[in-house]
Automatic annotation (TrEMBL):
It comes from the Bacteria. The keyword Coiled coil applies. This is Efflux RND transporter periplasmic adaptor subunit. It comes from Hoeflea algicola. Residues 1-22 form the signal peptide.
Length: 353
């Protein structure tokens, strides 16, 4: 009997020294947490616009008979852009010129009458009252002549106002009139981009403006040729949020525009923000606990795993950045976390094995 008990004890001791199949160290991928300086990029698509523009309009109303500049056309100062029907203005000029001719004749006649009266008064063959009347007639003729010249000048200006002209070197970026259209005085006819440079305009989601501001230097590229890079600086951020889209308008002055850059062209802009020192880990480390997100931490000495709650700052492509829960140098399980439980012994394998 004694020998049987000893045999059973030996058997139990042997069995206890051999770990059960479930207690075999689990092969897992482990990454070591480390803090690195993180630069976060924000990329949006915007549109190239003129840094300065103006609305060109006729000072008079009328019917459009000709449009001389299309969208995209580059125009020089005083270049004609469009014309109105000018029949009334041309008739007004003829009438004003006829009135001016008559006023000139009356003025010359009044001068001759006054000179004749002066001669007669000197010889005693007329009265001073008659001479003064001739002088008054001359003053009246001078007034009529001045008025006729002013009427002619107004008629000439009215005719000139039927032609819409560029005020400086510019580019037509929008046209709001067509031949045959009736427009009113000061009604916008064309929008002109002045040759004062380009700016890129972006609709920025409000959430991107929360926190530390990105660097004002913006890297720009053309959508049609992404390899074409150029630079810009943020010049204006609207204080108002668009209630429909929840975005804020940001304007970026283009510093070194590439050749051929055109108004209305889509561009991509990238801003960089320094996020400071952060711990970034593969997104596969994230598990869940009753308290929220968690990761599995491996003790270097015992190689036992334990679940630790973490606070996530943000996600990026393939990575997750943590605010708390993981310290510099911690071993974190990157894969096979679904097979773990607290106290499970693991062994480290190389990533990809």
């Amino acid at each position: 009997m004694r020998s049987i008990v000893i045999a059973w004890a030996a058997t139990i001791a042997v069995l206890g020294s051999v770990p059960a199949q479930g207690e075999q160290p689990l092969a897992v991928e482990i990454v070591e947490a480390s803090q690195t300086l993180e630069l976060r990029n924000f990329t949006l698509t915007g549109e190239i616009r003129a840094r300065e523009s103006l609305m060109a309009s006729f000072p008079v109303g009328g019917r459009v008979i000709e449009v001389l500049a299309e969208v995209g056309a580059k125009v020089r100062p005083d270049a004609p852009l469009a014309r109105l029907d000018s029949i009334q203005q041309e008739l007004a000029i003829r009438t004003a010129e006829a009135g001016l001719t008559t006023a000139h004749a009356d003025h010359r006649q009044a001068i001759e009458d006054l000179e004749r009266s002066n001669t007669l008064l000197a010889s005693g063959t007329t009265t001073r009252a008659e001479r003064d009347a001739r002088e008054d007639a001359l003053r009246a003729a001078e007034g009529v002549l001045d008025q006729a010249e002013a009427d002619r000048d107004r008629a000439i200006k009215a005719l000139a106002d039927t032609v819409l002209r560029a005020t400086s070197d510019s580019t037509v970026i929008k046209r709001m009139i067509e031949p045959g259209q009736i427009i009113g005085a000061a009604q916008p006819a064309m929008e002109l981009a002045l040759d004062s440079g380009f700016e890129a305009v972006f609709d920025v989601p409000e959430v991107m403006l929360i926190g530390k501001a990105p660097d004002p230097g913006i890297l720009l590229s053309r959508l049609s040729s992404p390899e074409t890079k150029f630079h810009g600086n943020v010049t204006e951020i609207s204080p108002l949020v668009d209630p429909a889209s929840g975005t804020v308008t940001a304007k970026v002055a283009v510093l070194d525009p590439p050749e051929g850059l055109a108004f209305g062209e889509p561009v991509r802009g990238t801003a960089t923000r320094d996020e400071g020192m952060q711990i970034g880990l593969p997104y596969t480390v994230v598990s869940a606990s009753a308290q929220g997100p968690a990761v599995w931490i491996v003790d270097r000495e015992t190689m036992k795993a334990s679940l630790r709650p973490v606070t996530i700052d943000r996600y990026s492509t393939g990575k997750v950045y943590l605010d708390s829960g993981v310290a510099e140098g911690d071993w974190v399980v990157a894969r096979s976390a679904q097979l773990l439980y607290p106290g499970r012994v693991v062994r480290r394998v190389e990533v990809g094995q």
